[in-house]
């Protein structure tokens, strides 16, 4: 006999998981734009952005990719009602923290562009990742995910 009682998942779970998937797809699009950056697009950027792209450490793109892909697959796992969503969102959360932690701690981005310009979107990304993790955790506890 199971040690928990499986509950039927609420309808909002599918809606939120689909929105998380769309957010993840937008992240994949941004990541694709980053890894396919070419000289003409780079030349059109402000000087600080060009310097950032040229001087960021090699591991940065791997952390960025890890954050985006695990978040995307976490949303798919939520849609499929799979428990693997939780560890995927944990990995995504760690990668998001490392990625933006490095950007804000190791660069002068805030001094150059201003906190009001650069801080809100990373907070949204962090919040969406925490939301996905919270829903996955709740889904496991409620028996919505198998």
Averaged pLDDT: 94
Bin the strand percentage. Answer: under 5%
pLDDT < 50 runs, ≥5 residues: none
User: Structural class of the secondary structure composition?
Assistant: mainly alpha
Largest sheet: none
Number of helices: 8
- Write the H/E string, N to C: HHHHHHHH
Total number of beta strands: 0
Helix content: over 70%
Count of separate structural domains:
1
Radius of gyration: 18 Å
Overall shape: elongated
Alpha carbon gap, first and last residue: 15 Å
Protein name: Sugar transporter
Organism: Sphingomonas yantingensis
Transmembrane segments: 12-32, 59-80, 87-105, 117-136
Keywords: Membrane, Transmembrane, Transmembrane helix
Give the arrangement of secondary structure elements.
Blueprint: H1 11-35, H2 39-43, H3 47-55, H4 58-79, H5 85-106, H6 109-113, H7 115-118, H8 120-142
Helix pairs in contact: 1-4, 4-5, 4-8, 5-8
Transmembrane segments: 12-32, 59-80, 87-105, 117-136
Protein name: Sugar transporter
Organism: Sphingomonas yantingensis
